[in-house]
Write a structure and sequence with these properties.
It is a single chain. The chain is built from 4 helices and 14 strands. By secondary structure, the chain is mainly beta. Helix 2 packs across helix 3 and helix 3 runs antiparallel to helix 4. The strands form 2 sheets. Strands 1-5-6-7-4-11-14-13-12-10-9-8 form a 12-stranded antiparallel beta sheet. Strands 2-3 form a two-stranded antiparallel ribbon. It has one domain: Beta Barrel (Porin), CATH 2.40.160.
Length: about 270
C-alpha cells in the first residue's frame, strides 16, 4: 500500500509544484525529491537545475532576465534538496548569482546564473544552422518513460534514442505533461537536459555515461511554443579518453532558436 501511495504521489508532483515548495524571496525551503523525478541514483539534471535557478531568480527583487547559466553536476542528489544562494555581484544591468543544491549526501549541483538586461545594439548576427526538423507531433501516439524515471513526466514520439542507429546527433520533439503555471525559463532549463547524452548514439553496448558540466545561453527573453513542444538537439563533436563534448540547442514550434548549450559528458566504454 505504501509503495502504491508513493507512486501515486510521484505522478501528481509537477515541476511547478516542486518550484513552489522551494519558495521565493531567496529563502529556499527543502524540497523532497520524488522518485519520479530521478535518473538512476540522482535527481534528473534538468529538474535540479530548474530548482537552483528558481532560488537564484528570487534572491532579490526585479532581477533582469536570465542570460546564461553555468552548471556543474558535482555529485548525486537525492532526498531533501535545499538551494543555497549568494549574490556575487549586482551592477546596474547585470547580476551574478551563485546557487548550490544540497541533498542528503551534501553538495550535488553548483551553478552560476547571470541575469542581464537587454540593450539596443547595432551589430546583430543569426548564424546558427538549424537541425533537420521532424514534423511537429500532431496525432501520433505519444510515449513516456517508466514511473520511476523523470521521463514519466514527459511526452515524446517513438523512443528518446534508437540504439539500432549509430549517430552522434539526437534530435527530438519533447514536452512536459504538466506545464501549468511554469516559469518558461525554468521549463527551458528542465527540458534542455531531457535527451540522453548524444555520445550514447555512438556506443556499441550499454555503458555508463554522466554529464559533468553544462553551459546554457538563453536566446529568447520570453520563450513560447505550441502545445508545449520543444525541439531538443544534441550533437557530439568530440569524444576521446572517456570524455565527450556536445553542442546543444532548443527550438520552438516556429523553428525559432530559444537556447544554446554545451555539455561535457564522461563515458565508460
Amino acid at each position: 500500500m505504501t509503495d502504491q501511495m508513493t507512486k501515486d504521489t510521484d505522478k501528481s508532483v509537477s515541476l511547478a509544484s516542486l518550484l513552489n515548495q522551494c519558495g521565493t524571496g531567496g529563502d529556499a525551503n527543502p524540497v523532497q525529491l520524488p522518485q519520479g523525478w530521478t535518473q538512476g541514483r540522482t535527481a534528473f539534471g534538468g529538474v535540479s537545475t530548474a530548482l537552483a535557478y528558481h532560488a537564484a531568480s528570487h534572491i532579490e527583487d526585479e532581477l533582469p532576465g536570465l542570460r546564461t547559466a553555468q552548471i556543474a553536476f558535482t555529485g548525486p542528489l537525492f532526498g531533501a534538496l535545499t538551494a543555497q544562494t549568494k549574490m556575487l555581484r549586482r551592477g546596474r544591468s547585470t547580476a551574478f548569482v551563485q546557487s548550490d543544491l544540497h541533498g542528503d549526501k551534501g553538495l550535488g549541483l553548483h551553478c552560476n546564473f547571470i541575469f542581464a538586461k537587454q540593450r539596443e545594439t547595432e551589430i546583430k548576427s543569426y548564424d546558427m544552422i538549424k537541425p533537420a526538423f521532424p514534423p511537429l507531433p500532431q496525432n501520433e501516439a505519444l510515449h513516456s518513460g517508466p514511473e520511476q524515471y523523470f521521463t514519466s513526466k514527459m511526452e515524446f514520439v517513438g523512443k528518446r534514442i534508437d540504439t539500432s542507429v549509430k549517430t552522434n546527433r539526437l534530435t527530438r520533439w519533447m514536452r512536459l505533461k504538466d506545464r501549468e503555471g511554469l516559469d518558461p525559463i525554468a521549463e527551458i532549463l528542465c527540458m534542455g537536459d531531457a535527451l540522453p547524452p548524444s555520445i550514447m548514439g555512438m556506443l556499441d553496448k550499454n555503458a555508463m555515461v554522466s554529464s559533468m558540466n553544462w553551459q546554457v545561453n538563453i536566446i529568447s527573453d520570453h520563450p513560447a511554443t505550441d502545445a508545449g513542444w520543444w525541439l531538443i538537439d544534441s550533437q557530439t563533436h568530440h569524444a576521446d579518453h572517456g570524455a565527450s563534448s556536445q553542442y546543444m540547442s532548443i527550438w520552438n514550434s516556429e523553428q525559432q532558436l530559444v537556447a544554446t548549450g554545451m555539455q561535457s559528458v564522461a563515458y565508460y566504454a
